[in-house]
Amino acid sequence: MMTTSSDVLVVGGGMAGAVAALAAATRGRSVTLLRKAPGATALASGAIDLAPMGEQRHVTSVAVASATAGWLEAVASRSPSHPYCAVGPRGLALIGDAADMILGRLADAGLPHAPFDAKGRGHLVVDLTGKVRRVASAQASQKLEETEPGKRRIGVVRFRRHLSLDTGLTLAGLRAVFANVVPVEVDWPDEADGAFLLPVEIGRRLDDPRGRSALFKLLRTAVAGKRLTHLVLPPIAGLEHVSEVMRAVSDVTGTKAVETLGGEASLPGHRLDRALSRALEAAGVRLETNAHGASDGKLKRFPGAIVLASGRFIGGGLERRDRLRETIFDLPVDDGARPIKDEPLDVLTSRRGLGAHRVFRAGIRIDENLRPLDVGGKPFREGLFAAGSVIGGHDPQADFSGMGVAILTGYLAGLRAAEWKRS
Amino acid sequence: MFDLIVIGGGVNGSGIARDAAMRGLSVVLLEREDFGVGASGNSSWMVHGGVRYLFSDPTVTRDSCRDSGYIQKIASHLIFRIPFLMPTVGGRPGGHLMDRGYLYGVESFLGVYDRYQPLKHGKQSVRLSAKEAYDIEPGLRRDIVGAATLDEYGIDAFRLCVLNGLAACEKGADIRTWTEVERLLRDGSGRVRGVLARDRLTGDVEEIEGKVTVNAAGAWSPRLAGRNGLSVKMRPGKGIHVVLDRKISNYGIISQAVDGRDVFIIPLETSSVIGTTDDDFYGDPGQIEVTNDEVSYLLEAIEHLLPEIRKARVIRTYAGVRPTLYEYGRNESDLSRDHAIVDHAAEGAPGMLSMVGGKLAAYRMMSEEAVDLVEDALGRPRSKCRTALEPLPGGAPPLPDPALLSEKYETPPWETERLVHRQGSRAEDVLVLTKDEPALRAPVCQCEGVLGAELVWCMRNEHVRRLSDLMRRCRLGHGPCGGTRCARTAATIFARERGLDAEAAMAELVDFLEGLWRFRRPALDGHQLAQEELARGIWLSSAGLDEPARGGCR
Ligand SMILES: Cc1cc2nc3c(=O)[nH]c(=O)nc-3n(C[C@H](O)[C@H](O)[C@H](O)COP(=O)(O)OP(=O)(O)OC[C@H]3O[C@@H](n4cnc5c(N)ncnc54)[C@H](O)[C@@H]3O)c2cc1C
Ligand SMILES: Cc1cc2nc3c(=O)[nH]c(=O)nc-3n(C[C@H](O)[C@H](O)[C@H](O)COP(=O)(O)OP(=O)(O)OC[C@H]3O[C@@H](n4cnc5c(N)ncnc54)[C@H](O)[C@@H]3O)c2cc1C
Q1: How much is the ipTM here?
Q2: Do residues A153 and A182 touch, judged by C-beta distance below 8 A?
Q3: DSSP code, position B320
Q4: If one looks up domain A153-264 in CATH, what number appears?
Q5: Which pTM value belongs to this model?
Q6: Cα(B325) to centroid of ligand 2, in Å?
Q7: Is the pLDDT of residue B180 over 90?
Q8: Torsion-angle region of B483 (φ positive above 0: left; ψ -120 to 50: alpha; else: beta)
Q9: CA dist., res. A129 & res. B539, Å (int)
Q10: Which distant-in-sequence residues (6+ apart) come within 8 Å of A333 by Cβ?
Q11: For domain A8-108+268-419, is the CATH number 3.40.50.300?
């Protein structure tokens, strides 16, 4: 199954694994990436959070500029168990390089992103319920262009024949943030199956210039006379040709068009997953998809460096059957503060479901060089590095460091793996 | 001034409200949350006599068998048949003969039960050889010596309560859900003249006067009575169920837990339900929680016969408190399931009755008995009870053919079938909504097969005050995805129907999701954790629910 001729083997094909593979390939190493299936990355919203940017999670008034630089360091200083802290200040300082590398590769692969600026104040994105937040980056189609408040007039597109794309909550939420938000109601052109199309199917149709022309005619009519500056769409703007689709919508409607973040069956996540595969291929990384995945036994024979980027429960890097465990090496798991073994779930979770839970901070421990640690706190194995959400001590959702951890640790682990030589 | 105030929207309260309204009384029903949230909706949904009560209390079995026959007539759409297997396990060397002896014992036990089967149109029990049992149920462990069959019926008990409430409303009753009775109003002589009730969504408090008050607050009754200086004796028994993401068996299967109690698994729609436990419970029934231990107890009991269940994912649990009649000293499971109607006149509080105990299958008879007493108390002659004759809303035969409806309204076939099961003869009224709004032809909840049209119909016609009420109207969010795919769309529709602003809509969404979390939490394990990680990603990163919502229930 596995090429023993590569210098570096990456286990996991989510954001962390992809970044690690690209970083190692950039250093001239031959890289094989092994993955079981798409993971959390392919289901995510498309936004790239690195840290909370500003006092509040959500922007309530866009006139107030949020705090700038130093937010990444702020996370590190506030929670000592966080991977941002574990990698040390020198590791943290490489976030700009890491982001530039991956965003550049994604742009080359046809999925441009809003530029990353370590000292900037991020970009505005709109989520499914119309909440607006600042993120480090997002797919270019998701960036809400900032304009002078007085002139702003936002239309929110609702396809009347399509329930799951219903933007009613987006509209209501945006109205709580901005003045001048109006609905733009459009009948989906295809009456017969309009109600049943999945976001991915709609995306494919929009990729096709002929497929989108009927819809665009309706859009043009619907915005006529509304004097809109912005147009908010549900997350459907094409699977492969998102830039063209967005440009075409903007041209047809004379607005700055923006998509909301992806939700259930996220098309932006799907898009990201595909673009990552294209970027890996372009960099000469060997991709191996194998539903059984890697196991310790198979990996033992590999002579080079290994990056463990197997994710959490969705990815399959962690699993719980009576006992919480890391699935490949059975590495010790903790929540950043305390080890976790067979504690019952009511100890590992809290009463408020949407709150924070120990089990969702769970993962392995690493040292400054991204090496997984054993029970005694020593590096577990020569030449083994870890990246992404398989690392514990952070909750991508509750502390808003989401993809940021995958990108930073992926980059660092990729570099360490590239440098590593058997002693 | 009402003739009758009913406290509680369980099967007994809603059954009384319907019966009384049909007899022409003016009725108000007050339910602190929503229809069926107590024991009724959280029961095993079996309209059976209960084999378990056969020897301890044959009258319960006879009465409920007869009445479950009636229920099949008045709510034919809601009823489903559950054939059961009771396998007998052998395997101990030398134990074979004894096992056979046990099997015959089971059989003759069921033979007694069979005498009542005609009353509820069930099939006679038969004995199967091991081979026959494996043919129809290949997942059984390999060393059974045989099995006996047993025919039961199930009913969607949430909807049974809702339909009784709707029927009462159609006959003029005033139905108020999310309205809690805080205390009783008494006049100088001690007579109960009404109640003080608080609307938990608006906060409004109101004095409601009634000539007679019936306390059908289930396991809440002792506390409610106690707060007002009255007494209702009860031995409340907590019971939980565990729901798996798939059908494990073709039939219901009865197994034995470590302590010798019967535990069953039944295939229900696309899932399996395992039940149940029975433990004394003296806490607040509204705060009931499921523990990890209770979940393991049930899983282990079934695993004993069906090893396959370890591969399934536990998607949720649910729990209720049985309002069992008071009787001390006996093992919980042996407690009588019969009912009593207590007249508090004996305690110096005329004008108030309490209903205690009962079974789903017997609710109609028990309601009849209670309304007879209400009429006595009102000083009017007893009028004829017609609740066994008139169908519940949607229960009037013939039921529409789902295939024809699905063709006519261009709706997906499986969801249309589910709609007919839940709405019966009203299914077409629901589908007519799609003529004006074609988008409503699409399913919103794919796990439970709920069309957009059904949601809107329920919101408009079935006393839905909160988004979470839809879990009970049409199982929204009760399937394997736990609301991940449907909740946002449902909240969007709800917000539009009710004209809610962003904050109120989010509060509904949060309440809905937290309600599901509460009973998913004790059973999190295996693949469910991946599902949970996905749900968190969606709600926190894509739907902005990472700040506690304000508003909602007070
Ligand atoms: C619904 C959702 C929305 C989100 N929204 C945001 C957001 O708005 N902003 C944000 O910043 N973050 C968001 N996140 C979080 C973010 O997506 C994750 O933190 C990040 O993608 C994790 O990346 P990863 O590479 O560590 O793991 P994954 O993407 O899960 O990748 C793990 C990979 O490892 C593979 N694997 C596992 N075991 C083996 C094995 N034995 N052999 C071979 N391969 C194996 C899996 O197949 C998979 O390919 C969201 C997540 C979800 C689920
Ligand atoms: C686990 C379990 C399994 C069971 N299985 C079966 C079975 O398979 N078959 C069967 O026939 N029976 C079964 N039962 C028994 C059956 O469910 C109950 O006997 C029956 O539902 C009792 O109905 P009820 O209306 O009296 O009580 P409940 O359904 O509990 O209704 C009481 C209602 O009163 C409301 N209320 C409480 N206080 C107030 C107040 N102050 N103001 C307003 N409203 C208030 C509550 O919210 C509640 O909705 C089971 C019970 C349990 C717990």
Answers
A1: 0.96
A2: yes
A3: E
A4: 3.40.50
A5: 0.94
A6: 13
A7: yes
A8: left
A9: 10
A10: A318, A324, A325, A326, A339, A340, A341, A362, A363, A364, A392
A11: no
Tens of pLDDT along B112-157?
Answer: 556 666 665 666 778 899 999 999 999 999 989 999 988 888 999 9
Helix B11-22 to helix B157-170 angle (10° resolution) is 20
Could you give the domains of chain B? 2-40+158-233+336-378 (3.50.50.60), 79-155+236-330 (3.30.9.10), 402-550 (no CATH)
**Is B548 in Cβ contact with A264 (below 8 Å)?**
no
pLDDT digits (tens, 9 = 90+) for A181-222: 999 999 877 766 667 888 888 888 899 998 888 888 999 999
pLDDT for B551: 42
Shortest distance, CA B521 to any CA of chain A (angstroms):
7
Report yes or no: B436 at the A interface, CB cutoff 8 Å: no
Task: Look at the block and give the residue holding tokens 């005619």.
Answer: A217
Q: What is the per-residue pLDDT across A99-142, written as a single tens digit (0 to 9) for each?
A: 999 999 999 999 999 999 887 888 999 999 999 999 999 999 99
- Name the DSSP letter for residue B537: I
Residues 6+ apart with CB under 8 A from A336: A79, A81, A82, A361, A392, A393, A394
Tell me: pLDDT of B552 over 50.
Answer: no
B541 contacts in A (CB within 8 Å)?
44-45, 47, 49, 127, 261, 396-397, 402
DSSP tally for chain B: helices H, then strands E: 17, 19
B218 lines ligand 2 (CB under 6 A): yes
Q: Give tens-digit pLDDT for B37-54.
A: 999 999 999 986 544 444
Nearest CA to ligand 2 atom 4: B43
In short, whether B483's Cβ falls inside 6 Å of ligand 2 is no
